[in-house]
Write a structure and sequence with these properties.
With 477 residues, this protein is α/β, with parallel strands linked by helices. The protein contains 16 helices and 16 strands. The structure holds adenosine monophosphate and zinc ion.
Length: 477
C-alpha cells in the first residue's frame, strides 16, 4: 500500500553557472538530457574519479525516480587530453602507450574495459550513450571550421586557437578575473597566441605522434575541450538540460566548452552545470599525478566492497569535500551489513494486522521525506538519515522492505540481494564445512537418504542448507 510514488515534487539543483540552487524543469516535458564528462582512459580510474561517477549515477536515478526518461551521454576520452588540463604537455594516451610499449588504441580499450567493470561493481547505471572521442573526429573538425569561420579561431604553428577576447564574457563559470593575473605565473605564454588565455582547439601533430587525422590543417588531433562540445552537440543537440563533471573541470575544461559552443553556434549548450567536489587524502586531492590514489581493488583487498565505498560517498553532499581513510570506509562496510540486516528483518517479518494503519502512514511519511531530500540538490546525507530511520523502525513490516527497495532505485545498493551478500559474510565452521562436503558426496552418489540425514544434522547445528543452480547455499538460523 504505497500511494505517493509518482507524485510530482519540485526538483532543485545547484547550478554552477548561476551560483545558486534553482528549480529544475527539463526542456522536454518527459525526458532529461544529460552530458557527463567521462574518463580519460590512459590508466585505471581511482576511487576519487568514482566519487564523480557515483554523483552522476545519483543524478540519473533521481531523475528516473521523479518519473523522467533519460537521454544521457558520457564520453570516453581516448585522445587529446594533455598532461596539463590547459594546452601544454604531452597527450596522456600517447605517453601511456609509449610507457607500456603498446598502441594507444590498445591502451584505451584495456582501461575502458576496466572502467566499465568498476561501474558494474559500483552498481552505477550506464548512460544510454557512451561514445569515444576517436569515433567523432568528423564532427569535431566541422566545429573547428565553424569557430574559424565565425571569427573566433586562428591558426598558429602549433594548431588552431580560440580567441577568448572575441567573447562577451570569459570566464563565466568561475569567478576568476583574468585581467589582473600574472599570466606568466599561471600559464606558459606562447608568443603566437593573441591572448594569454586563448586555448588550443585543434593540435598539429609532430612527426612521431601516433594518434592523428587528416584535416584542413594537416595531420593533427583534437583538443580535449572540443571533443566534449562536439559530442554533446551531436547526441543531445545545441541546447540540453544538464552537463556534469568534477570541480576541476570548472575553470578550464567547461569554461572552454562553453566558449567553443558560443564560437560555433552562438550560445552556452547546457541549462544547468553541475560539479562534484573532490575526494581528498590527508586533506589534499586524490589524483593520479600526485601518486596518492587508491583503486576499488585496493579496498576489496581489505574486505571493503565497492558498494560500501558508494555508501561512504553518501555521507557527504556531492558539493562538499570528502576525506578518505581506510578506517572511515571500513566503518561503512559495517554500516552496509547493518543496512542489509535491517532490510531483511522487515522483509522476513510475520505481519501484525494491528499495525497496518500505522505502517501505511509511516511509509508515506518516510517516502516523502526521502523524496524531498533527493530532490533538494541530491542531499544524500539527509536521504540516508531517513533510510536509517526506516531500518531502525520498531515495527517491522514488509511494507518498509518494499519502500526500501523503491528507495534503492536511487541508492543503487542492490538491497534486493541482501541475503546473497550476507551469505558471503558467514564464516562457515570447519565441522559444518566437512558435513557439507560429505553431503555433496552422498548427493553425487545419489544416496539421498544419507544426504537428507546430513542436512538434518547441519540444521541441528544451526544452519539451513539450500540447493541452488549455483551450488549449495548456507543460511544461519
Ligand atoms: P579524468 O579521467 O582524469 O578525466 O577524471 C574523471 C573524472 O573524475 C572527472 O570528472 C574528474 O573531475 C573526476 N575526479 C578526478 N579526481 C577526483 C577526486 N579526487 N575526487 C572526485 N572527483 C575526481
Ligand atoms: Zn568533457
Amino acid at each position: 500500500m504505497i500511494l505517493s510514488y509518482k507524485k510530482y515534487m519540485q526538483i532543485k539543483l545547484y547550478n554552477t553557472l548561476t551560483h545558486k540552487k534553482e528549480e529544475f524543469l527539463p526542456i522536454k516535458e518527459n525526458c532529461v538530457n544529460i552530458y557527463s564528462c567521462g574518463p580519460t582512459v590512459y590508466s585505471y580510474a581511482h576511487i576519487g574519479n568514482y566519487r564523480s561517477y557515483i554523483f552522476m549515477d545519483n543524478l540519473r536515478r533521481m531523475c528516473k525516480y521523479n518519473g523522467y526518461e533519460l537521454k544521457h551521454v558520457m564520453n570516453i576520452t581516448d585522445v587529446g587530453h594533455l598532461t596539463s588540463d590547459a594546452d601544454t604537455g604531452e597527450d596522456k594516451m600517447e605517453k601511456a602507450a609509449k610507457k607500456e610499449g603498446k598502441d594507444p588504441y590498445e591502451i584505451a580499450e584495456f582501461y575502458t574495459k576496466a572502467f566499465m567493470e568498476d561501474l558494474e561493481a559500483l552498481n552505477i547505471d550506464k548512460p544510454e550513450i557512451i561514445t569515444k572521442a576517436t569515433d567523432n573526429i568528423k564532427e569535431m573538425i566541422q566545429m573547428v571550421k565553424e569557430i574559424i569561420d565565425n571569427g573566433y579561431g586562428y591558426e598558429t604553428s602549433k594548431g588552431i586557437y580560440f580567441d577568448v577576447s572575441k567573447l562577451d564574457k570569459y570566464p563565466i563559470l568561475s569567478n576568476n578575473d583574468l585581467s589582473g593575473e600574472d599570466h606568466g605565473a599561471r600559464i606558459e605564454v606562447d608568443p603566437e597566441k593573441r591572448n594569454p588565455y586563448d586555448f588550443a582547439i585543434w593540435i598539429k601533430a609532430p612527426e612521431n605522434h601516433l594518434m592523428k587525422w587528416d584535416s584542413p590543417w594537416g595531420k593533427s588531433y583534437p583538443g580535449w575541450h572540443i571533443e566534449c562540445s562536439a559530442m554533446g552537440r551531436k547526441y543531445l543537440g545545441e541546447n540540453f538540460d544538464i552537463h556534469t563533471g568534477g570541480v576541476d573541470h570548472i575553470p578550464i575544461h567547461h569554461e572552454n566548452e562553453i566558449a567553443q559552443c558560443k564560437g560555433s553556434f552562438g550560445h552556452n549548450p547546457a541549462n544547468v552545470w553541475m560539479h562534484c567536489e573532490f575526494l581528498l587524502v590527508n586533506g589534499g586531492k586524490m589524483s593520479k599525478s600526485l601518486g596518492n590514489v587508491y583503486r576499488l581493488k585496493d579496498l576489496q583487498e581489505q574486505g571493503i566492497e565497492p558498494l560500501a565505498y558508494k555508501l561512504f560517498c553518501y555521507s557527504s553532499h556531492y558539493r562538499n569535500k570528502l576525506n578518505f581513510t581506510f578506517e572511515g570506509v571500513k566503518s561503512f562496510q559495517v554500516a552496509l551489513n547493518r543496512l542489509r540486516e535491517g532490510y531483511l528483518k522487515h522483509l522476513e517479518v510475520k505481519e501484525n494486522v494491528e499495525n497496518v494503519e500505522i505502517v501505511n502512514q509511516k511509509v508515506i511519511e518516510f517516502e516523502n521525506r526521502f523524496h524531498e531530500a533527493i530532490n533538494d540538490d541530491l542531499n544524500m546525507p539527509v536521504a540516508m538519515g531517513v533510510v536509517w530511520e526506516i531500518i531502525r523502525n520498531d515495527i517491522k513490516s514488509k511494507e518498509f522492505a518494499k519502500l526500501l527497495e523503491k528507495i534503492d532505485e536511487v541508492l543503487g545498493l542492490d538491497l534486493k540481494n541482501s541475503q546473497k551478500y550476507m551469505q558471503k559474510e558467514i564464516q562457515i565452521p570447519q565441522e559444518i564445512q566437512e558435513l557439507i562436503e560429505k553431503r555433496n558426496k552422498a548427493k553425487t552418489e545419489k544416496n539421498w537418504k544419507i544426504a537428507d540425514k546430513i542436512r538434518d544434522e547441519i540444521k541441528e547445528k544451526g544452519y539451513n542448507i539450500k540447493d541452488t543452480k549455483e551450488g549449495t547455499e548456507l543460511e544461519k538460523i
